[in-house]
Task: structure prediction
Amino acid sequence: MYRIECDDKTLHDIRDENYTLLSPKVSLELNKTGNLDFGILPSHPEIGSIQKLCSRIAVYDDEELLYAGRPTTDEADFYNYGQVSCEGELAFLLDSVQRPKERGRTYNFEPISTNIDIFRSIINEHNVQAGESKKFEIGIIDIDSVSIENFDANYENTWDLLNSKFINVYEGYLRVRHENGRRYIDYVKQFGQDSTQEIRFGENLLDLKRYVKAEDIVTAIIPIGKNNVTVRTANGHNGTDYIYDSTAVELYGWIYQKVDFSEVNDPDTLLAKAKEHLKTCVNLAITIELTAIDLHLIDVDIDRIKLGDIVRIVSPLHHLDRNMMVSKREYNLTEPSADKITLGDTLSCLTEKQAGLQKGSEQQKNSIASSEEEIKNNMEYLAVKVETTYAGMNVISEQMQQLGTGTSDMLAKVQEMEVNINNLTELSTATQKSLTELDKTMQESIQGLITRIETLEKGGEEA
Result:
C-alpha cells in the first residue's frame, strides 16, 4: 500500500478519504532526478504544509521508501484544485557550484590521482555549500579507476559537472540510497539486482521499439596528445596525422573528428589508444526499448521489478532472448495496473545488418529452439485433429447403424473425413521432414554467422 508524507505529515493514505491525493504518479529514470506529480483538493487538511523547495516529500510502498524529493511548482485552477510537481533528491546537486580551484595535482585543495578522487572532492564541495538537509554521504563507488593529472571546473553547478565529466564519460549510474537514517550517494555500474521475474511476449510485454542513430558516427580521427603530440612518427604508421577505418569510410564516407588524449605523450601509445577509440566511433547506436507490466501486481509472491534491475526478456516474435536493465519505472499510486516499466539496451554496430549478427549465435540457437518447439506443437495439434476426426467418424457410423439409414449425405461426410485424415497425415510427415531440414540449415547458418561476427568485431581494417 502506498502512502505519501510531507515533512512527516500524511498527505496520501487511501484508508482515510480526507488524506487522498488526485492521480499521484512517480517516475524514476536512470541518471535522472526523478519526479512526483499529484493533484490536491482545497479541502485537504495539509494543503498549506507543502512549502516549495523546503518540504521533504516521501513516498512509501508499505515501509519501503520508494521516492524522496522536494516540491518545485504548484498551480491552482479556477476552483482552487491544486497540482504539485516534485523533483528527486539528486536535484539537490543543482544548488551548489564547482569553482575553478585547480592547484597542480589538487582539486578543491584535495590531492587527486584518479577520477574517483575527483568524484569524492566534487561531493565534498557540494556538502560545504549545501544545507544539512541537502548533504550526501559518499557511499559505494565501483566505477573503473582512471588516472588523471589535472581537472578543473568552471562554475558549473554540481549536477551539470557530474553529467558532463562523469556520467557521459565513465560507465556508471548515480544512485541515492537511504540506510539507518543517512543519505548516501553511490556511483555504480549495476544500479539494481538480478530480477527473478521475466517479461515474456504474450504475458506482460506491452510494446517494443527499436531506435537506430547514426549522427555520432566518425570514420577518421585526428588524435592529439600531450604537448600536441601526433601519430605522424608512430611506428608502423603511414606518416599522416590521422587514422581511419576503411570499411566505415566505404559505408559512410569521410567523417573527421579531432580527439584529445591529453595524458599521452608517446606517438606509439597515442596510435594504440586512437585505434581503440576509433572502433567505438564507427558504430551505429541501436537502442531497443520495451514497455511491460509488473506481474507483482497480480501475484505478491513474485518479486517487484525496480529501477535498474536486470530482467530477462523473451519474445520469439522479435527473436529476442536477453537480459536487459530497467531504465525507467513509472508508478501510478492510485491505479497500479497502469504502472509502466521501460527496459533499454544499446548495441554498437557498424551496420544495422551487423547489429542483427551482433545478437550472436546464441540468439540464433534460441530461434532454432523456438522453431523446433513451434513445429512440435503443430505436430501435436495435428495428432489431436486426427484423433478427433476418427472419433467423429465413429459417432457418425454409430448413428447410421442406429437409424438404419444409408443417407448419401452422411456417407459423403465420412468420405470427406477420410480425405482430411490423409491430408493431415501427409502434413504431419512433411512437418517432421521440415524439422530435420530446418535444424540442419540453421546449424550451418550459425557457423557462418559466428565466422562473420568474429571478423566484424575486429573493427575493420585501419590505416
